[in-house]
Amino acid sequence: MKSYFIEMLTDQPRRTAVLRNTVKNKRTVATLFWAREYGILKWLGAAPRLTVNDFEQWLAQMKQAGLVKVDDQLAWLTPNGIAEKEKFLKTHYQPRLGDWFWLGRTDQLAPRVLLATQAVSQFAYHQNHYVPLNLAPAELYFVRQWFYKNRVQIIDNWDQELQQAAFNLAKLDERLAKLLVFSLPGYQATGWTLDQAALALDASTDEIMVMERDIWLGIGYLALNQPGSLMNQLLADRLHETPLNHSAAVTLQMFEQGMSIDRISQKRRLKLGTIREHILEAAIFMPRLIDLKRLIDPKQVRQLTERYHGVPADWTFMPPVAEPLTVADKAQNEQAFFEYRLFQIIKGGQNDE
């Protein structure tokens, strides 16, 4: 889906590492912060298997074609690149459900649904001997247990849930429903390959990959919001209720209960820096849940307000100790950077509202 990477660029310089790490789902606070500032969070985890070499090759090709300028790990679109991006946006499928990136990894959701469909279809035709899809043993076991637990009326119930998923996807784009239905394996059917889907839907393979991401995010959303359904039972352990990872969610819950970050660090036996990162991640995704006054005293907020002006993304951190030599100096700079980044995130979020 590299052809879609042009959508992450503008005529303003952007950090190439942020673009690459965003699609690879490398969730550092720095990546998440800049991805939010660039407005590209919807692409988080879109290409988890992308290699650095693949990304650099794409960037080099874009530069050679005169569409991108690259300088010191920054990249931006040339006038020709801007025109190419505008054309691309008009002629290629655009993701409908990218804002649900946090629901789960589509490369984990899809195999389970496909294997489950294969198992139910073979069962419907009384076929007990067939070659299942090539999944990890643990995944094969999980789906097998799901099947035997629900085998009574599973044929009709699974068919109804797949039909509902297809119906909901068709509201967004009929091609999504068609792609889902014809990609499902079953009795004497293997499902479309990427190339077959592209040919049938008159789309590029990159477009099909983006459509597939929408499909599995849509099914994930459906499963999350239908407790007890077959789809929910199949996917629940792979789904997330918030954009935060589990550990960050635990930290946020404890923070909301009134604990200080120092106390959370002690109670969870995690480094203070880790707890700070959890709070910063929560501030990026759910800024309204972070009470700034509990983390930065009013005097420090006034100092930060006086020191940093303009667009938050343009700020540059000024450490209180220019040359930290002692442990205390380093600790002071770390606390100052946490306060700076938190203040920057909150202010940037207010500008986005």
Features:
353 residues, mainly alpha, three-stranded antiparallel beta sheet, 17 helices, 60% helix, 3% strand, globular
List the helices and strands and how they pair.
Elements: E1 14-15, H1 16-24, H2 29-38, H3 52-64, E2 68-71, E3 74-77, H4 79-91, H5 106-124, H6 137-149, H7 154-172, H8 174-183, H9 194-200, H10 205-224, H11 230-235, H12 246-256, H13 261-268, H14 272-285, H15 292-295, H16 298-307, H17 327-352
Antiparallel strand pairs: 1-3, 2-3
Describe the structure.
With 353 residues, the protein is mostly helical. The protein contains 17 helices and three strands. The protein has helices at 16-24, 29-38, 52-64, 79-91, 106-124, 137-149, 154-172, 174-183, 194-200, 205-224, 230-235, 246-256, 261-268, 272-285, 292-295, 298-307, 327-352, and strands spanning 14-15, 68-71, 74-77. It has a three-stranded antiparallel sheet with strand order 1-3-2. Strand 2 and strand 3 form a beta hairpin. Helix 7 runs antiparallel to helix 8 (174-183) and helix 14 (272-285) packs parallel to helix 17.
